[in-house]
Amino acid sequence: MKTMVGLIRAEILQHRGSLLITPLVIAGLIAAFVLAQLFFSTSGVNIEFGSFDVRLDGRRIIDPDAFESVGQTVGAAFGIFGVPIFFVANVLAFFVMLSALYEERAERTVLFFKSMPVSDTQAVLAKYVTASFIGPFIAIAVMMGLTIVLSLSTAIVFTVRGVPQVWGFLLELPLLRLFTSLAGYYSLYALWVAPIFAYLLMMSALAPRSPFLFALLPVAVAVIAEAILFGSDFVASEIGNRGLAIYLAEAIETSRSLLGARAETGFDAYFMRFTDILATLAVPAFWIGLGCAALFLTVAIWSRSRKTL
Predict the structure, then answer these.
(1) Residue 266 DSSP code
(2) DSSP state of 15
(3) pLDDT tens digit at each of 309 positions of the chain
(4) Is 164 helix (H, G, I), strand (E, B) or coil?
């Protein structure tokens, strides 16, 4: 366990630009834009999230009795501001995975790691876990920090402009629920997209040069051949459904239908439920994908064990 933790730390340090600095820079830009709108608006600040409406041009519109719903709405809404951070984190994970094992050989660092008491299985799994889970979870933590900063800033602006008792809604921010929902949804997504990421890592291990082209070519050939020979698009749709979280969205929709009339509306509907997990586990394509991911990772481990340069 200590070995894996050490390997993951090494991966984070090696890719700190992609995993740490980039999410922080994007969060800083988003925060600067939103704060400029809050602090320097000359016509008053108008905020509307669903049924929650606040106008700061001379009127005071926050009911202390509604602080709970206001806090949940504001927390969820500011969480949405962090979506670009999450999107970029996944794009960067794509390229980190694709280059991880290839760069080891190109930079000859694989010789150093092979001289250490670390197995090829541990090394490959550490790279996979770091790019697939740790990096995006760092992005989620940055999103939560952005939510807190924007919520505090909003409360300050409301107070300065005459809205009474505004700090009450901060006590109702569903930060823990928001974090667990984001982490839970991403964990499900990472498992759905596992065969794609594992394929990239496998191609990174196998590619003699240009891993991007080496990974793209078999997929392009399969898509074109399938279209010509069978007139279908299974390969392309399978990759798209997993990569764009369509399968996950369908599973969530199924879980919501299980709730029937008890399904909630508004921003509360975006928080994760246990039935979302059950609906995902009930889909055969989910387990088939995990099986393919295990196969691809096995090939990547085998290839790394045989190649040093």
Answers:
(1) G
(2) T
(3) 778 888 888 888 888 888 889 889 988 888 888 778 777 765 554 555 444 445 444 444 444 454 555 555 566 666 666 678 878 888 888 888 888 877 776 666 655 555 566 788 888 999 999 989 998 899 888 888 888 888 788 777 777 766 666 666 667 677 777 788 888 888 999 999 999 999 999 999 888 888 889 999 999 999 999 999 988 899 999 999 998 888 988 888 887 777 654 545 555 666 788 888 888 888 999 999 999 999 999 999 998 877 655
(4) coil
* E strand residue ranges, 112-265: none
CA distances (Å), 15 to each of 33, 123, 124, 193, 268, in order? 27, 15, 15, 21, 35
Residue 262 tokens read as 């008890």
Q: Quick one: residue 63, left, alpha or beta (phi over 0 = left, psi -120 to 50 = alpha)?
A: beta
3-state secondary structure (DSSP) of residue 232: coil
- State the Cα–Cα distance between residues 177 and 275, nearest whole angstrom: 16
| CA pair distance 204, 284, nearest whole angstrom | 28
pTM comes to 0.82
Separation between Cα atoms, residue 208 and residue 206, nearest integer Å: 6
216 vs 98: CA distance, rounded Å: 11
CA distance 125 to 155: 44
E-state strands within the chain:
46-49, 52-55
Q: Give Cβ neighbours of residue 306 (< 8 Å, ≥ 6 apart).
A: none
Asked if 286 and 188 count as a contact pair (C-beta separation under 8 A), the reply is no
CB 259 within 8 A of CB 306: no
CA distance 96 to 88: 12
> In degrees, to the nearest 5, what angle opens at C-alpha 283 toward C-alphas 282 and 286?
115
Q: What pairs with residue 52 in β-bridges?
A: 49
- Distance from C-alpha of 107 to C-alpha of 57, rounded to nearest angstrom: 60
Alpha-carbon 144 to chain mean position? 13
Tokens of 19: 């995993």
